[in-house]
Design a protein that fits this description.
- The protein is built from 6 helices and 9 strands, in the order αββββαββαβαααββ.
- With 236 residues, it is of the alpha+beta class.
- The protein folds into 2 domains: 148 residues, Nucleoside Triphosphate Pyrophosphohydrolase, CATH 3.90.79; 61 residues, Orthogonal Bundle (Arc Repressor Mutant, subunit A).
- The strands form 2 sheets. Strands 1, 2, 3, 4, 5, 6 and 7 form a 7-stranded mixed sheet that branches.
- The longest helix is centred in the middle third of the chain and has 16 residues.
């Protein structure tokens, strides 16, 4: 007679197991342009093509999907994100020739100052301008995944403070507005934007000013204890 534990084992083993992965769309802004971190695949399928950094879920190691995403980022890119969030789960029989797969898509943001030089990246990683990247340029269905992330970034930038995670450690209000305009894909009214950002009490003056240009401008930084702020009204 089988014990309950044996019956449980039989039931557990009888289920089909799809391939489960995590893919991370890692975004940054440099030179006034939104960029995506890609990795060149070194094996089939799609060997030699660009893809989003990703990897398999390690059931014995990863406590949850967020831990998987951070492990993949550390292994593949060697960059610690300033911000990360889960976007969507995409699954089908046709998205990977190796079998029925499901991937959990994450969006990660890193500031230009934290990003450092490209030679510090993981093997085969490179930043690519998002505007010049064609949808079919990425392996698998990663072009579609990237489109989903772009939609999330634009939408969430209009009602939260996540663009601040892309800014350098110290920034002017003009720079903050420029970054919000890049991520919201809209032109913002100067006085209204500054009032809403300052009223939110999520940034503070450093006491320093920029030393270039005809006019000096106060430098700001994110408050250490500030989390993602939700604005009461849409921006842009």
């Amino acid at each position: 007679m089988k014990t309950s534990s044996q019956n449980h084992s039989v039931e557990k083993d009888s289920f089909e197991k799809p391939i489960l992965t995590v893919d991370v769309a890692y975004l940054s802004i440099r030179g006034g342009e939104l960029e995506i971190l890609t990795i060149k695949r070194d094996k089939a399928p799609h060997e030699g093509e660009l893809a989003l950094p990703g990897g398999y879920v390690h059931c014995d190691e990863d406590e949850d999907l967020s831990e998987t995403a951070r492990r993949v980022i550390a292994e593949k890119t060697q960059l610690e994100p300033d911000y990360i969030e889960q976007v969507e789960t995409i699954a089908s029989r046709s998205r990977d020739p190796r079998g029925w797969t499901a991937t959990v898509l994450f969006m990660a943001l890193v500031s230009d100052s934290k990003r450092g030089e490209d030679d510090k990246l993981g093997k085969d990683c490179q930043w690519v301008a998002l505007g010049g990247l064609k949808r079919k340029s990425l392996a698998f269905d990663h072009g579609e995944l990237l489109s989903k992330v772009k939609e999330r970034l634009v939408a969430k930038s209009r009602y939260t403070s996540i663009p601040l995670y892309l800014l350098p450690k110290e920034f002017t209000l003009s720079e903050a507005q420029k970054y919000f305009e890049i991520t919201t894909q809209s032109t913002l009214e100067k006085k209204s934007f500054r009032r809403r950002l300052l009223d939110a009490d999520i940034i503070e003056e450093t006491g320093e000013q920029t030393k270039t240009g005809k006019r000096k401008a106060a430098l700001y930084r994110n408050k250490n204890d500030s989390n993602v702020h939700f604005f009461p009204r849409m921006i842009g």
